[in-house]
Each structure stands twice: as C-alpha cells, then as structure tokens.
Design a protein that fits this description.
2 copies of one chain form a homodimer. Chain A has 459 residues and is mainly alpha-helical. Chain A has 3 domains: 121 residues, MgtE N-terminal domain-like (MgtE N-terminal fold, Alpha Horseshoe); 103 residues, CBS-domain (Roll), CATH 3.10.580.10; 180 residues, SLC41 divalent cation transporters, integral membrane domain (Tetracycline Repressor, domain 2, Orthogonal Bundle). Helix content of chain A is 64%, strand content 6%. Chain A has 23 helices and 6 strands. In chain A, helix 5 crosses helix 7 and helix 20 packs antiparallel against helix 21. Chain A is elongated, with a radius of gyration of 31 Å. At the A-B interface, helix 12, helix 13, helix 15, helix 16 and helix 17 of A face helix 12, helix 13, helix 15, helix 16 and helix 17 of B.
Chain lengths: 459, 459
Amino acid sequence: MKDPLLLPELRELLSNNDVEGLKKFCQAGHPTAIADFLSALTPPEIRRVLGVLDPPKRAEIFSNLDEEVQNELVRELPRRELADIFTHMPHDERAQLFQRLSEEEKASLLPALAQAEREDIKKLSSYEPGTAGAVMTSDYATLSPDLTADEAIRKLRHEAPDKETIYYAYVVDDKRRLLGIVSLKDLILAPPNKKISEIMSTDIIYARVDEDQEEAARKISKYDLIAIPVINGDDALVGIITHDDAIDIINQEHTEDMEKFMAIAGKHSVGAYLRTPAFRHFRNRAGWIVGLAVAGFVSGAIIQSFEDTLRSLVILALYMPMIADTGGNTGSQAATVVIQALARGEISLRDFGKVLFKEFQVSLLLAVAVAAVSYIKVVFISQDATVPPEFTLAQIAGVIAIALALQVVTATLTGALLPMLAVRFDKDPAVVASPAITTLVDITGLLIYFYCARLFLGV
Amino acid sequence: MKDPLLLPELRELLSNNDVEGLKKFCQAGHPTAIADFLSALTPPEIRRVLGVLDPPKRAEIFSNLDEEVQNELVRELPRRELADIFTHMPHDERAQLFQRLSEEEKASLLPALAQAEREDIKKLSSYEPGTAGAVMTSDYATLSPDLTADEAIRKLRHEAPDKETIYYAYVVDDKRRLLGIVSLKDLILAPPNKKISEIMSTDIIYARVDEDQEEAARKISKYDLIAIPVINGDDALVGIITHDDAIDIINQEHTEDMEKFMAIAGKHSVGAYLRTPAFRHFRNRAGWIVGLAVAGFVSGAIIQSFEDTLRSLVILALYMPMIADTGGNTGSQAATVVIQALARGEISLRDFGKVLFKEFQVSLLLAVAVAAVSYIKVVFISQDATVPPEFTLAQIAGVIAIALALQVVTATLTGALLPMLAVRFDKDPAVVASPAITTLVDITGLLIYFYCARLFLGV
C-alpha cells in the first residue's frame, strides 16, 4: 500500500499547510493503508497531519499505527490532544496503549479523561496480560430480553455510530448476566413484534475473563464466530473479543511458539526486525546459545572420559558428529509433530501411552532406514581408514549402525516425551526448545555410542 | 465439548429409534459441538442420526464434521441423500468436498444436483488449490448502485435466510464489476431514500482469484475485514472469503511452515495424529532424515580426510560435536528470525544487504560470547588430556575458540541468507529446513575447524 511516489506530495501539502488537501488525503484510503503511509514520516510530521483531522478520524488512524510509532507520538502530543485520541480509540486498543505508558504519563493523562473513559481504561487494563480479559473490548451492544425485535433494531440503530460491531447483540438481565445472543440477521428476519427472549439463541459459546487468550481465540476459530462474549466470576458480561483480535492472537501465539521452539527469547513488537538494534537481537538470542554452549560441558566431559577409546580407535571419532546430528534431527521432528498435535487438540495427556507407542513404532522404522545408510556410509568412506588388526571395518560399521539405531529410537521418544511433560506441568509445550533436545540427545547419543563400542568391540 | 456421559444416552435414542429425541439432541447445541460429539459414533450410526434431521440442519452438521469422517460418510450415503446435503452445504465447503471425491463418485453425484448447484460446484472447484479462488464462497449478497437504502435492506432481508453473511453487501454493475461495498450498519444508519451509490465505500480491499490464499487471508487480518471480495481477470466479482476461512488458512499455513522448517513432508488432515498409521508418519518424516544421513557422506568424507590430523591431536576430535552443535543452533535461530520477519512483511528482498549486515553484527557478538565459554570449557575439561609436547593446552583451546567464533559468524549468515534466497527464487522461505541448515553448517564448520588447526598449529 505504500506508494513512494506520493510521499513528496504529502510533504508538499504539509509545507504549504494545506489543511483541506491533508484532510482529503486521509479520507481517501482505508485507515490501515493511510497509517502505513504516514509511518514513513517523522513523528512531528505525523502529529501535524493528525492535527488537521476531526477527533474520530484522528483516533482511527492513530490506532492503526505501529505500536512503536504510537509510543513515540504519545511523547509528542500535548495532554489535551492525547486525551481526545484516547476518548475515540477502540476500547481494547486504548487499554493496551495505556498499559504501555510510563507511570507519570498515566498520572498526567487520567485527569484529562471523562469519568466513563477513565473507569473503562482502568478496568480493562487491570486484567493479567495474556488472558481473555486483557484483549477484550467493552464496546458492544446489549439488549434486554423483553424488547421486541423492532424496538431492538431501533436501539441498535441508535447506538450503531459508536459501536465497533452491532452484528451480534448480547441479551443480559439487570445484573448483566448473559441470557442469550441475537444476531442482527435474526432481528431483521423476525416478526417485528416478537420478543427478544423468543428470538435469541441461548446456546452460548463464551470465554471466561481469566481464560488464556489463545483458548478464547481457538473458540472463535472453531465455532466460526464474529465475536465471543467474555464473562467474569459472577457470570456477568464484561466484554467481547472480536474476530480480528482472534487473528492477531493466533498470529502472535504462532510467532511465540516458533521462537520458543527455536530458543529465542524475543519480546519485540511486530514490524521491528530492522529497527531493533543488533545488541537487542543478541540479547534475545544469546541466552540460549551461550547456555547450550555451557551445557556442552557435559558432552565434552563424556567424550574426554573416553579419550583412550578414541585414541585406540580414531575411526569412532569420525562418526561422532553423525550420531549427534541424526539424534537432533529425529528428536526435533518428533517434538514438532507432537507439539502441533497438542496445539490442535488432536491429542491430550490421556493419550500419553498411545503417543509414545506410535512414536516408538515410527522410530523403529526410522532406525532401520538410517542404520542401513550409515553402515554403507562407514564401509564406503572409511575404506582407507586405519583399523586395528583385531577388527574388520565391517564389524566397526555394524557397531556404529547399531548405536545409531538405538540413538534414533531414544531421540524420537525423548522428542515426543518432553512436550507432553511440559503440558503435564502446565507449561506451553513449545517451551521445549529444539536446540535443548539436540543438546540432550547429544549426551544420550554419546553414552550409547561409547557403551556400544565397549560392549561389542571391547575398547 | 465432548461429554462422554451423554454417549450412552445418544446410543439409546438410536436403538429406540427415538426420532424426536434425536432431533431435539441435535438442536440443543452449536452445530460444531454436535458434530464433535457425533464423531464418536460409527459412520452408519452418524448416518442414522443425520437421517432424522431436516436437510438444512443435516447439511450444517455434516459440514462441521472432520474431513475424514465426511469422506467415510460419503461412501455410506445413498446418492439422493448426498445430493441433498450438497444442496444445503456452504458453497466453499461443498466445492472442497467435491474435489475429494473419486471420479466415479463425482460422475454419479452431478446428475442428482440441480443445474445451479452443479455449475456452482464446477466453477468453484476449477481453481488451483492454494489460490483465493479455491477457498472463496459464491454465497454473498449483491446490490445494484441505484437502489435506495430502504430497498436494499428489504432485498437483504428477503435473501438473508439463504446467505452465509449479509453484513457486507457488494455493489456491482450489470457486468458484475465491483463498484463498492456497503455494510448493513451503513444501510441501517443511512436515510431510507439515499442511493446505494452515495452510501457505498469505493475504497475496496479485494483479492484476485489467482492470488495466494495466504495473501488474501493476510489482507483480511491487516484490514480487520469480515470478508474480502474476490475478483477475476475481468474485474468481475466471483466470490468472497470470510473471516472464519481466513483463520483456517492462517492456522493451516502456520502448521505447514513449522513442518517445512522442521523437515516433515506431512500432508495429513487435521485431527489425524493418532489415526494416521505409523508407516504413514514414517513416510512423512523418513525422506528428510534419511536424506540428511546420506548428505552426511560429505562431512564423513571431510573428517576421514583429516584422519591423520585427528590421530596426532585426538583432543581436536573431542570438540568436533561442539563445532557442529553451535553452528546448527545459531544458524537455525537466524533462519527462524528472518523467516518470521519475512512472513510478517517486516523485511523484503530490498533489505537483503541491511539484513545481512544486521545479522553480521549479531553474529560477532554471539561469536565473542561463545568463544569465551568454549575457551574456558576446553581448558577446564581437558586438563588431563594428552597434549603433544610442542603445544600447550591454552594454545589448543585458543585455536578451538577462534574456529568456533568463525563458525558462529558463518552459520548465522548462512541461516539468514537461505530464507532470502528462497524468496528470491519464488519459494516459501519456510522450505529452508532447520536440519538442512544444520547439515550445511556442519560441513563448513569442519572445514573451518581443520583449516584453523592446520594454520595455527601446523598439524
């Protein structure tokens, strides 16, 4: 959507102070596209563009800017203008922006807001990050069960200009307990005099305020909802999560899962790769890499303790990397498959035994295939290797193949087991990082390798 | 939603042939929940439950069943009942089901359908899988630009019972070219006599029929749409993709990306982990694992060619796995970060140089940290190692640290480079599998390691 040809024009409008031109420009596209475009300007320039717009439009474009740009603008804007933007922003986004402010900024902003806004912001930003409560919006339409369809449509029509969505309305009693849901489509199709209580659907899919946001998003996805109502401990309706937020949650969780699995500690906002300084990238990534290097002490010490074995049979040293690599590959694959099956709800902890048995079968098949390749490899590559007279190359290749087969089975089971253990202890299965599996099966692999050599070759 | 206590009750209703009871049961919950529940029955039982329902309800529950269960039922159902279900299913889902039928099943089904359905199915299933055309539905409301708001509402009300969504209506000319979009909210808020052409938004976000489905889903996500219109080469409206399909596409792409990156060739339907036979799992996973084992010929040959070096300095063999592991970890991390930044559109091919420079900076920092740890590790673990008199342990540890630092830089740059090269050649960056990176940097790492030893130690 960014059209570099238009940037000079926009700058010209700014330098000519062409208020009408700027207004027209900002009306001409989807607010997301306009916000994308404005991101190419400096914060003071963006502030000047936003300044010419009426408050609702200004808030709409502001809320489509990247988080980082929003943060910079907050520091630019006078309190009055910022309060105006807060008043007109979507309720969920302004609560999230509010949480990103410093304590001083919060203290300065609150008195400038009307009481209703102030309370709404305080309430929404009081929920634990990552819960349904923290991502819901308080901006939804409610109906009383004894309205008629016609009265309900008139009420929605009256409220529509200020509401994010009017396509679902929530039927609540006087304690805001959720009785049912009625879609605008149902209302339009119903006879005008029919009562809401007779039209509404009472078969409600809802989320709890302290539920994981991912769980709420999964319900929206599973039941094809436009929005899901969120209720508190007293069964009172406190907010809704809309379909677009569900997509954002799913995308964000996917990124986090992948980062966890690949052992990156990243806590960066979207759009930030190039803007993030190299040192921050380093900090996100170094923890694991250095930690794993430290964990390598164990495998280093194991190898060191078999120095004499290696000295008498150097050919064994040549195939240590193969043991490590194959174990890492099969273990990470098994973990990926199990993590995804858990994430999609295909398997649960109750299937523990079945999963391990399935992975065991798979690992036996993989072990046979990989052992065959490795036998051929050793015999072929190491034809000219120095082999002590008491052994034949075929014997050594056979032992390496047996060790590799055992390593494949162990690594596959380890990879399948760890995500299930994580779930057992209420952790996200994706915290089981692939490099951690690699490091772990390195250790088991080396032990298997050297004990096989000792057992079968007596070295 | 599956409640195991209810299953015996349901079976009892079935064995008593209690039609009213079965009907009531199927009306009592969300169709997705009912479908989940029915999945615990055998296909003939499911068929009997569906048989008591009226056709629209039957089709609704059927279309919420897992793909595999649908496939089994198709074989159970007589042609007449199947045609009934096809008539009432959502247009996009029936086209996808149709594509899964065998040629004989297709040929037998088509004559049983009304002409309109037949043509719709043929048209929708004619698009390339993976494109916007293949996932769109033909079930949407259109309006003519010279209707009034009031006339439009009446038209939508009339069509509502049969349409998947009426919350967006598409304004088209007599050649079905898309002129604008109007939301039901806009219509409700507009003065009754105002013309659609004056109310509609002409700033349309759309997808092309041959566009990647992921691209269309990303637009729905970015612009917070309930649905996106899909147009063909003549700019005529041919379908829409709805928000719930966008979530399905995003979830599916996430799974595929993760599987590609972890080198699994899986082409399995959702919900299938336990049902998939071990041999099929093996087939999905063996290609890569065995392929990588074969690729290990190269690193095996490299190590073999340095057998004499290793023989004279066995301590070098002890730290070969560390070189391989650290390279694999840093390379996969860099690839993950770059793949995600590409997927989110944070970087593009134009940033090639900037990305490499950023990763180079990160890799230098990582190299220093990891080299320091490895130096300490070698000195500490190998105190008792046999070191030839011409070298000190500190010298050897220094050379290993230098080699490791070079390996970290090379591996990080390789990991960052490969996904960008994939994009350059129009491939999905996630095809760059993490195990492939590991295998590649193994080779470069070994060469770096042995050449450093030769250069600095003369062995």
